[in-house]
Amino acid sequence: MKLIVKVFPEITIKSRPVRMRFIRQLAKNIRAVLRDLDPAVVVNGVWDNLELETRVSEPKILKEMTERLSCMPGIAHFLQVDEYPLGDFDDILAKCKLHYGDALAGKIFSVRCKRAGKHPFSSMDVEKYVGSQLRQQCGAAGISLKDPQVEVRIEIRDQRLFVIHSQHDSIGGYPLGSLEQTLVLMSGGFDSTVAAYQIMRRGLMGHFCFFNLGGRAHELGVMEVAHFIWKKYGSSQRVLFVSVPFEEVLGEILGKVDNSHMGVILKRMMLRAASSIADRLHIDALVTGEAISQVSSQTLPNLSVIDCVTEKLVLRPLIASHKQDIIDTAIEIGTADFARHMPEYCGVISVNPKTAAKRGRVEHEEKEFDMAILERALENARLVPIDRVIDELGQDIQVEEVGEALAGQIIIDIRHPDDAEDDPLEIAGIEVQTMPFYAVNARFKELDPTRQYLLYCDKGVMSRLHAHHLLSEGHANVRVYRPS
């Protein structure tokens, strides 16, 4: 399979050195993301696009390649093509007829030709000749440039002809690794996940920072969605997941801060902690999912007071977004189901929260706060590479595993819906239900408590994590299914 990868249009207007650097980075990212599917994949760069060639022919692997490229920052779209040496017009016609002839009978069609290089003919000359001959030879109903049923697409580059089979859109933006790094504050909800995606899409590498206010289930949920975002959109780069234990910080706020200022001060403590971690990682910008006036702490006066505690640039990609637009984006990028099932921990609920907090009053409220508690939280922060975060979380968890399901037991396939659909788990005589891992904690209580359930995933890590959590919640009827 051969692909022509078209880069994000804004890259093409950069200066020559910047443009070449971005395209080299994109080529490097493509190789990194596809390496496990085809170690011999070839990616060559030219001025305004990249050419990718793989000898892999298995449809399942080719589909996975297409899906990964469709989620890669820096790519506008890519074309699946067949390449030939450029011949005369009759040779071009023959190649087009070979690929499109059967599809044109009785159809309205058009011919589109793009050309680069020096030739004694124009793109329009090719379109006119090939179009008229295809109409005569293939029994087409007619030609329409405005509303064709079939579009015959070709590209001519110097002495090469490309016949285009299909086009796949990607997400645009700049290649990850071509711009600076950021630290994304993650709660796992709609806002922070969409903010993380938008930052990554723009080419900014984002490490993830989670402030744990007291819930193991919430931490697990945020780890899962952070890993999902990275795996789908950013796996060309290695980033960290930082988990900061904030229970003691929250307790100090609840005990010493006026109720109306708790929300603003909690955000200030988070920004202080995030800034310290960013310093450690040599990062100059923080990212949050805040949108103006969505909640009381996100008014302009409050955001101004919150930002006073850091010299870091605070990026808020959603600042002017409507909530429904954020939700729609979350659905589009695949994080909405995570957000809907994310365990919530409402650490601070003010009765009459200030919407226009004064800096002096906030600083007065903070005087009683023991900053040693914040320092202790930072000392106990865990920094784990995102690609190992789920594995490390499950290392010390011990739950009963079975290699064979017995009659009457129900296997729950907790893999991502895409994986379960592509490779369904089927066992003769055993009932198999699908329940995505991000929905297990919320939906398990709906199941018949008199039945025995076996959780299943590919590696056994996610199933152990969720089985352990369910057992700790009092569900004694759960085990892990690990077929030998």
- CATH topology (fold) name of the largest domain: Rossmann fold
Low-confidence stretches: none
- In the CATH hierarchy, what is the architecture of the largest domain at level 2? 3-Layer(aba) Sandwich
Total of domains: 3
Q: What separation lies between the terminal Cα atoms?
A: 35 Å
Key terms:
484 residues, alpha/beta, VC0802-like, Rossmann fold, Oxidized Rhodanese, domain 1, 3 domains, six-stranded mixed beta sheet, 21% strand
Task: Give a description of the structure.
There is one protein chain. The protein is an alpha/beta fold and 484 residues long. The chain has 3 domains: 2-169, VC0802-like; 181-393, HUPs (Rossmann fold, 3-Layer(aba) Sandwich); 397-481, Oxidized Rhodanese, domain 1. It has helices at residues 16-34, 59-69, 89-104, 123-138, 190-201, 216-234, 247-256, 262-280, 300-307, 323-333, 336-340, 359-366, 371-379, 389-393, 417-422, 440-443, 461-472, and strands at 2-7, 42-45, 49-53, 75-85, 108-116, 142-143, 150-157, 160-169, 181-185, 205-212, 240-245, 285-287, 313-315, 382-385, 401-402, 410-413, 431-434, 453-456, 478-481. The strands form 3 sheets. An 8-stranded mixed sheet has the order 2-3-1-4-8-7-5-6. A 6-stranded mixed sheet has the order 13-12-9-10-11-14, with helices on both faces. β18, α17 (461-472) and β19 form a beta-alpha-beta unit. The longest helix has 19 residues, at 16-34. It is globular. The model has no long low-confidence stretch (mean pLDDT 91). Residues 405-481 form the Rhodanese domain. Belongs to the ThiI family. Keywords: ATP-binding, Cytoplasm, Disulfide bond, Nucleotide-binding, Redox-active center, RNA-binding, Thiamine biosynthesis, Transferase, tRNA-binding. It is an enzyme of class 2 (transferase). Pathway: Cofactor biosynthesis; thiamine diphosphate biosynthesis.
